[in-house]
Amino acid sequence: MTQLRTADDVLGESGVAVLLPGTPGYEAARRLWNGMIDRRPRMILQPRDVDGVAAAVRFAREVDLPIAVKCGGHSAPGYSVCDDDGLVVDLSAMSAVSVDAAAKRATVQGGALLRGLDEATAPHGLVVPAGAISHTGAGGLILGGGFGNLMRKFGLTIDSLESVQMVLADGQVVEASETENADLFWAVRGGSGNFGIVTEFRLRCHDFGPDVYVAASIVELEHAEEALRVWRSVMGDDDVPDDLSWISLFRGAPEGPGFEWVPDRLRGVPVLLMPLFWAGDVTEGERVIGELVGRLPTAAVVAGVVPWVASQQQMDHVFVHGRRHYAKAGFLDELPDDLLTALVECAATMPHPSCQFEVLRLGGAVARVGQDATAFPHRQARWPMNIIGLWDDVAADDESIGWVRRVYEVFRPHLSGGSYVNFAGGDEDGGTSAVYGGTWERLVDLKETYDPDNVFRFNANLARSRA
């Protein structure tokens, strides 16, 4: 127990909890959302405030251990935890969200979850655009960019970010904004966790809610190409309203709470699921979405006005912690007919009902931000795609991973390059230089300035050797 006493001696006054293998709390703290990840870090440090984070970083430097940072633990490649070659700084005790309604600003600690952000802002008629699985860590989502149902209306989450407080690789606490450490502020808006541990995000809120109009249409595979052509025509138009989000998602027809509307004969059967979301006036949303759904060969549909916060939690029970997960992603400029045909054929081969692949539409407010304004490199990308293997049985690993890779090969000839870092599976073609695209060179230079020893290396890493 010498190591524990040493860590406690150094960190005790800072209120940092120290978890070693075999001590209470260690097993739970090392577990991630992706059940495939089974790593045992040398130790897990749980600070309560920014001073504790700084002390944890200084201790890591003293004992010469690199750092993995855990917010919500949703990193699909498992970046949130390391093996015994490093230690984890777990921010779960720093999960507060406060809202200044008059200033329209939310202050979010580094370990907060999206649920906390939504539930804090909604009572004030405010929102920060973010992702749609509420147990995702806000920190990881923000640092990668921040996709979600409101991105076409309000931009990525980073486009609402006004400043951060963070701890650098030497343990120094700094502020970063457009006017202070501006190069660092540019880098953390899309550069993932490469530059330090963000302990506080300050985000601009937008007037919104409390209700939204949503719909979901199920199309059987025999009619899926027809539906995809309608969707492509609508969402491919550069004049499509920013208020409209419409995803094409192939998966087994869902079941469980909230999906009682799905016909029994389709439950678990591969289908095209098309969620539609309207971010504006709900009466207008009912009209627009009603017209769009009316053009689809639907087997089942549900639509109506729901509370914004509830809409953000509808898929939580599908993406629960502990399931096995493998993903590959990319971007497409076009969706030709032959690709649509091939995707329907891929859907018919999915090995488990929870396996899926989706195509989204960027544009809108995302594309109106300058290409060089932030480190997010894909402002003009049109169609992000994401293939997700999601299953429970270890014996199904090879089958599920193989299916994801086969679907990716179908997409490959049509990919325009790069991948959204928060979708990336960690084994992308071209390494991290492909993930970060045109911002990679500047990001690498800043990495060498702020973290020359690559202390923060458990991420989509920007060390030149990882290119």
UniProtKB/TrEMBL annotation:
Gene Ontology molecular functions: FAD binding; oxidoreductase activity
Cited InterPro entries: BBE (IPR012951), FAD-bd_PCMH (IPR016166), FAD-bd_PCMH-like_sf (IPR036318), FAD-bd_PCMH_sub1 (IPR016167), FAD-bd_PCMH_sub2 (IPR016169), FAD-linked_Oxidoreductase (IPR050416), Oxid_FAD_bind_N (IPR006094)
UniProt KW keywords: FAD, Flavoprotein, Oxidoreductase
Chain ranges of the FAD-binding PCMH-type domain: 36-208
Signal peptide interval: none
Superkingdom assignment: Bacteria
Cofactor(s) required for function per UniProt: FAD
Any Pfam family matching the protein: BBE
Flavoprotein recorded as keyword: yes
Assigned protein family: Belongs to the oxygen-dependent FAD-linked oxidoreductase family.
Protein name: FAD-binding oxidoreductase
Species for this entry: Goekera deserti
